[in-house]
Design goal:
8 helices, four-stranded antiparallel sheet, Rossmann fold, alpha/beta, Arc Repressor Mutant, subunit A, elongated, five-stranded parallel sheet
Length: 231
């Protein structure tokens, strides 16, 4: 059965161009032209992937992505007319899987759609609950607690912490972390790893018996350091 791609952009020519090339590759394409319509169609159609423009009037792509991530892990590729690191980082922070700047080559869009769908299909089920010290992460409910108290993480912060917990004591370089969290096909800057690690450390500040260590010149590793009940 053909995968369904929801293309969201207030510029109809962009939607038509994406539809033309995606249809040629056998995808079923649905369209939305504003944020409210995008949320409605995402919930009713349950697409396999969403191509989502950031710059839309009223409800923009950032707001749409944030709302979708409350209940759905549908893969999202974000589009923007601005070559701006802030847009890219914010979009990825909210849980987007990839990012493209307009104008874009429609063949590259097709390639990225295929790559993101391939990554999503290859994600194998694994241990649902991960623990270290007094830190507990539930991959099924996407909930994190420290000493029984809930900690709110952004989507990629959660995914990064999951990678650390699944590789306790192992040094992970920045390229490896990008592959584990954003995927091998992600075209991004390794600096985003440093930003995410800083945010994680801040949010997990009360975690006992566990810490994310910097391995200078290489990357990071999560270490279990001792008694989780230490004061």
């Amino acid at each position: 059965m053909a995968a369904t791609i929801l293309v969201v952009d207030d510029e109809k020519n962009i939607v038509q161009l994406a539809r033309l090339y995606l249809n040629k590759e056998g995808f079923r394409v649905e369209a939305a032209y504003d944020g409210a319509q995008a949320l409605e169609k995402a919930r009713s159609l349950r697409p396999d992937l969403i191509v989502l423009d950031i710059m839309m009037p009223e409800l923009d792509g950032i707001a749409v992505c944030k709302e979708l991530r409350k209940t759905s892990n549908v893969p999202i590729i974000m589009l923007t007319a601005r070559d701006d690191d802030i847009d890219r980082i914010v979009g990825l922070e909210l849980g987007a899987d990839d990012y493209m700047t307009k104008p874009f080559n429609p063949r590259e869009l097709v390639a990225r759609v295929k790559a993101v769908l391939r990554r999503a299909s290859q994600e194998a089920p694994s241990q649902a609950v991960l623990e270290a010290g007094n830190l507990r992460l539930d991959t099924a409910s996407r909930e994190v607690t420290v000493q029984g108290k809930a900690v709110t993480l952004r989507a990629k912060e959660f995914d990064l912490l999951t990678a650390f917990l699944r590789h306790q004591g192992v040094v992970l370089d920045r390229e490896r972390l990008l592959q584990l969290v954003w995927g091998a096909d992600y075209f991004g800057d390794t600096r985003t790893i440093d930003v995410h690690v800083a945010w994680l450390r801040e949010k997990l500040g009360k975690a006992k018996g566990v810490k994310i260590e910097t391995v200078w010149g290489v990357g990071y590793k999560l270490m279990v350091t001792g008694d989780a009940t230490e004061s």
